[in-house]
Design brief:
The protein is an alpha/beta fold. The chain is about 40% helix and about 15% strand. It is built from 9 helices and 8 strands. It has an 8-stranded parallel β-sheet with strand order 7-6-5-4-3-2-1-8. The chain binds pyridoxal-5'-phosphate (PLP). Pyridoxal-5'-phosphate (PLP) binds next to strand 8 and helix 9.
Length: about 230
């Protein structure tokens, strides 16, 4: 049986709350990012009407058409790999870029934010699994990247993001979530910056991410169903 989007949303909010309580955390400290890639604005407005305000997109071309079709006042996160030649549009469309993983990209975002007269919230994406095909700054380079990005006046680093290697068994992601949190704790200590945001956990492993400290869970399939590659 197919559940409605409303039902999926309610179930998911319940699951997030339960995972938080089980971990002894305040459920209010965890936000749901509805990953809306490949989903029509009509369906997103259903979530909007239920109170959802945070949405995540992984393609600039798709988002630049979709976001203007949504009510204003939402919080739009870019969560995909970002080419520098898309930085200008990303700055125009998004409130948060979660996938900053190299200085070249940070510099371009800084430049474009300055032109647009904006400040941009960002997360540093860390490649915790060390997979060659994945985006993300290598863990051992994160301190260096943070120090350099911290010099940029238009970018506000809010925390870290990671996409661990995918395995059927969600438990295999746990050490990677723990690793991201440990990196964050270390960076906070060494930099003195407030890096509260930990964006980690997706449809199949978010309860584990919450147990390991996630503040932002990025969820698509569990809400909208499977949308192909
Ligand atoms: C698509 C996507 C998600 C959501 O994944 P689901 O398994 O559909 O919940 C989360 N993060 C990123 C970076 C994505 O591209």
């Amino acid at each position: 049986m197919n559940l409605s989007l409303e039902q999926n949303y309610q179930i998911l909010l319940d699951q997030i709350q339960k995972a938080a309580e089980k971990a002894g955390r305040d459920p209010g400290s965890i936000r749901l990012l509805a990953v809306s890639k490949k989903v029509e604005p009509e369906r997103l407005r259903i979530l909007w009407n239920l109170g959802q305000r945070c949405f995540g997109e992984n393609r600039v071309q798709e988002a630049r058409v979709k976001i203007p079709e949504m009510p204003t006042g939402g919080e739009w996160h870019f969560i995909g790999g970002l080419q520098t030649n898309k930085a200008r549009e990303a700055v125009e469309c998004f409130d948060v870029v979660e996938s900053v993983d190299r200085m070249e990209l940070a510099l371009e975002l800084e430049k474009r934010a300055a032109v647009a007269g904006k400040r941009l919230k960002i997360l540093l994406e860390v490649n915790v699994g060390g997979e060659a095909a994945k985006h993300g700054c290598p863990p051992e380079k994160a301190a260096e990247l943070l120090a350099a990005v911290g010099q940029l006046g238009r970018l506000e680093v809010k925390g870290l993001m990671a996409i661990p290697p995918f395995r059927e068994d969600p438990e295999t992601a746990r050490p990677f979530f723990a690793q991201l949190k440990a990196i964050r704790d270390r960076l906070e200590q060494s930099s003195g910056l407030d890096l509260a945001e930990l964006s980690m956990g997706m449809s199949h492993d978010f309860p584990i991410a919450i147990a390991e400290g996630a503040t932002l869970v990025r969820i698509g399939t569990a809400l909208f169903g499977s949308r192909g590659p």
